[in-house]
Amino acid sequence: MIRLAERSDLKRVLQITRLCAREMDSRKVFQWNQHYPDQQSFVNDINKNELYVYCIKGKVVGCVSICSYMDKVYSKVTWKTSGENSIYIHRLAVDPKHQQQGIGGKLMDFAENKSKLDGIESIRLDTFSQNKVNQNFYEQRGYVKLDDIYFPLQSGHPFHCYELLF
């Protein structure tokens, strides 16, 4: 079941993202660290009703932020659309114990279907250039790789920006 996140989910969401960071580190994918994702990002998402969680038997096992705001770092990207009617996917995470069960895909299906119903013209996101698993995941879903951006507090490596048009 997918639902809007509540404040009471915050601790579990942070636990999941930390577990994901450790799992990625074990694969030498240094995408997330002590700077990101941070608690304040999730608090902001909850306050704006932009954080969704995936639950199994009442327990949160995954999350995704579906945001309407374009971060300034994206202004340098040559997008396919104007962005006036786009949303941004951030912080997609699934507890490593529940990965490889299609939950990430279900969260993305939800985000994509919600966007279509809301009349959104494109979904934008970024993923770490060293995370080939994520790149393949998004490309198989039809996302087109565009420009690179940098998050110096996270890594010296770039992050690839992707866009899916409806």
Strand and helix map with partners:
Layout: E1 2-4, H1 10-26, H2 39-47, E2 51-56, E3 59-67, E4 86-94, H3 103-117, E5 122-128, H4 132-140, E6 144-149, E7 159-165
Parallel strand pairs: 4-5
Antiparallel strand pairs: 1-2, 2-3, 3-4, 5-7, 6-7
Chain-averaged pLDDT = 96
Sheet with most strands: strand arrangement: 1-2-3-4-5-7-6
Straight-line distance between termini: 25 Å
How many strands in all? 7
Anisotropy-based shape: globular
Q: Tell me the radius of gyration.
A: 15 Å
H and E order: EHHEEEHEHEE
Task: Determine and state the CATH class.
Answer: Alpha Beta
Uncertain spans: none
CATH superfamily: Gcn5-related N-acetyltransferase (GNAT)
Strand residue content = 25-35%
- CATH topology grouping: Aminopeptidase
**CATH architecture assignment name:** 3-Layer(aba) Sandwich
Short description:
With 166 residues, the protein is of the alpha+beta class. The chain is 30% helix and 28% strand. The chain has one domain (2-165): Gcn5-related N-acetyltransferase (GNAT) (Aminopeptidase, 3-Layer(aba) Sandwich).
Description:
This protein is of the alpha+beta class. It has a single domain, classed as Gcn5-related N-acetyltransferase (GNAT) (Aminopeptidase), CATH 3.40.630.30. The protein is built from 4 helices and 7 strands. A 7-stranded mixed sheet has the order 1-2-3-4-5-7-6. The radius of gyration is 15 Å and the shape is globular. The model has no long low-confidence stretch (mean pLDDT 96).
